[in-house]
Design the sequence.
């Protein structure tokens, strides 16, 4: 039996500090983490499920875990993860994911937030947990995540998350909430590029960019140079056309020096035709990339939504994260991190040509396949 698979995954978490007092420990932190990760991979949606999975597989777990006092109770799992320091857990997670993936120049790193709705605890005045995650398209993996108390606090969480990541040579995409001078400066200082959406929260820059494109395109650009590209996709009675205009004419903008490495202003036109009815909308972006490859810029902007489609959607549909009622201490954030570890491992295993739900079921049925999934963490 390949018992090195689960041990390999846990090596990255070996340095995590155990929050319990020595005299209260009946189960090692390594045992608790191993059982929890395996259980979540196989479909567990709470601590009761985790403990039940452990008891069901105790014979197998004893082949590579000591388990001197058997499988921990669901209360023990809940108590330990509620006490476990989220930052310590995150640092170990990042160490693991760094060993698992290879950085490449020009890779897309999309940053976005997701609220765990049922983590709201009105009785104790605790807001719902809002997880801000970074997803790498090249590896199709979550690179890191931090929790905030509300969506409005993404502005403070994003710089903390960026600080933990290696974004050298990467292209970071963030929606309008993260379009801040401080965040732009940090991305540039860490050696990355950015493509950030503009909305009214950046009044002057947004208004001036809208005016520039509206006037220039109406008047045949008045000598302003620009680059353009377009894509068309369709299916199921729907046709979507996207067109980009990108210009490097930013010298006129009086506050450009406050936006470090600002090189390009972008307008995207999205035209959708459904059942013969056409709608059109415009979106605006800023970037530190040059304007002369509009197709690539459009690809980055479209690629940003992979974090919604491949991470947030999967967590909601396959892991039922929004239905999770775990609330005590840090448990909601740490269980969410377990889900992302499981999602990364399941996506990394590509020999089984089924969806995430199918892979989770197979892991629960087929111990050898579970070991194969865990091997991705060595």
Sequence:
């Amino acid at each position: 039996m390949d018992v090195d698979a689960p041990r390999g995954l846990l090596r990255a978490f070996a340095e995590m500090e155990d929050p319990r007092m020595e005299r209260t420990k009946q189960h090692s932190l390594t045992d608790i983490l191993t059982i929890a990760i395996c259980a979540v991979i196989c479909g567990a949606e709470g601590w009761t499920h985790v403990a039940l999975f452990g008891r069901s597989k105790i014979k197998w777990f004893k082949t590579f875990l000591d388990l001197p006092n058997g499988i921990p109770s669901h209360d023990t799992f809940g108590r330990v993860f509620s006490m476990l320091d989220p930052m310590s857990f995150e640092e170990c997670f990042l160490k693991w994911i760094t060993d698992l993936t290879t950085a490449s120049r020009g890779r897309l790193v999309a940053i976005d937030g997701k609220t765990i709705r049922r983590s709201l605890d009105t009785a104790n005045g605790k807001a719902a947990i809002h997880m801000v995650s970074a997803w790498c398209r090249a590896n199709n993996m979550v690179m890191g995540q931090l929790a905030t108390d509300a969506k409005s606090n993404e502005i403070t969480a994003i710089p903390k998350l960026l600080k933990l990541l290696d974004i050298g040579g990467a292209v970071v995409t963030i929606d309008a909430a993260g379009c801040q001078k401080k965040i732009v400066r940090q991305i540039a200082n860490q050696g990355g590029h950015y493509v950030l959406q503009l909305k009214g929260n950046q009044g002057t820059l947004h208004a001036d960019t809208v005016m520039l494109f509206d006037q220039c395109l109406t008047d045949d650009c008045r000598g302003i140079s620009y680059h353009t590209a377009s894509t068309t996709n369709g299916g199921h009675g729907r046709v979507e056309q996207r067109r980009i205009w990108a210009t490097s004419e930013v010298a006129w903008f009086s506050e450009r020096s406050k936006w470090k490495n600002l090189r390009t202003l972008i307008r995207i036109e999205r035209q959708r035709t459904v059942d013969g009815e056409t709608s059109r909308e415009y979106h605006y972006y800023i970037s530190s990339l040059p304007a002369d490859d509009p197709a690539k810029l459009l690809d980055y902007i479209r690629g940003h939504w992979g974090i919604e489609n491949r991470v947030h959607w999967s967590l909601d549909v396959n892991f039922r994260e929004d239905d999770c009622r775990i609330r005590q201490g840090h448990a909601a954030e740490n269980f969410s991190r377990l889900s992302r570890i499981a999602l990364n491992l399941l996506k990394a295993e590509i020999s089984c040509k089924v969806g995430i739900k199918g892979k989770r079921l197979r892991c629960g049925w087929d111990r050898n396949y579970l070991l194969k999934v865990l091997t991705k963490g060595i």
